[in-house]
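User: tokens in, sequence out, please.
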């Protein structure tokens, strides 16, 4: 018997031009597209003739289960996540839940994550060793987040901060900056990008001290440079170490 399959699709930051061809193909061949309502809306008219199913925020498990239920009916299912589904997305939860569905095959279609799309707008802020830290403590204890921030600073990584803020966590970016400021200078080159690939895209370059006092929203990705990151013509540039003269 042929296995049911579910595509787990990273749709990129928003606009269709920023979706990978593989992701577009997976969505085109799907009968059912499952996702968070905002992302289904972002898909726009092109896919609105498909069956669209959603569950609200914090109902991610139910969203994944819905995929397996639809696949069991013989439907071609695509689950969409913003950016890349394997970076703070639902790919891993799908594999975990998938243990209970041995007849269903999972195929991940890569997407452009906010670290890449945001970096492109700011210049080249993660062009050397970097790490990503999510400031959301919904699924990770804050103590662990602090530990990772300190370790990232200690390792002189360029840092990408996902989930820097939400209605409930307005001061988290400030708290994260305070931890970084234990080891970094106030003038450390930083930047942030709001609404990548969507209406109202905004990219800002600033110092770590300035970042500390900025209010950002949940559609923002924050970049903290390493010790050598430079601002060149208004762009944030983390060098690789080439000698140019
Ligand atoms: N899977 C996604 C990340 C989901 S976590 C990815 O790979 O990009 C949600 C966080 O991602 C947001 O809080 C924000 O930090 C970042 N993000 C996702 N889409 C974004 C966008 N269009 N503009 C800016 N930041 C974005």
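Assistant: Sequence out:
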């Amino acid at each position: 018997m042929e296995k049911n399959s579910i595509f787990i699709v990273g749709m990129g930051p928003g606009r269709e031009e920023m979706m990978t061809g593989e992701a577009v193909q997976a969505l085109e061949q799907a009968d059912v597209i499952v996702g968070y309502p905002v992302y289904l809306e972002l898909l726009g008219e092109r896919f609105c003739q498909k069956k669209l199913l959603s569950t609200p925020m914090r109902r991610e498990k139910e969203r994944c289960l819905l995929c397996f239920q639809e696949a069991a009916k013989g439907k071609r299912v695509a689950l969409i996540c913003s950016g890349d589904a394997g970076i703070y997305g639902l790919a891993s939860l799908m594999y975990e839940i998938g243990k209970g569905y041995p007849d269903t095959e999972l195929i991940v279609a890569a997407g452009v994550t906010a670290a890449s799309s945001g970096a492109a707008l700011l210049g080249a802020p993660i062009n050397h060793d970097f790490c990503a830290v999510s400031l959301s403590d919904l699924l990770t204890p804050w103590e662990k987040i602090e530990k990772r921030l300190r370790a990232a600073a200690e390792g002189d990584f360029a840092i990408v901060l996902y989930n820097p803020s939400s209605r409930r966590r307005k001061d988290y970016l400030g708290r994260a900056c305070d931890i970084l400021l234990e080891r970094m200078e106030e003038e450390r080159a930083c930047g942030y990008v709001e609404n990548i690939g969507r209406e109202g895209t905004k990219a800002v370059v600033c110092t770590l001290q300035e970042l500390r006092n900025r209010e950002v929203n949940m559609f923002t990705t924050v970049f903290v440079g390493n010790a050598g990151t430079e601002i060149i013509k208004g762009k944030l540039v983390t060098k690789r170490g080439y000698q140019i003269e």
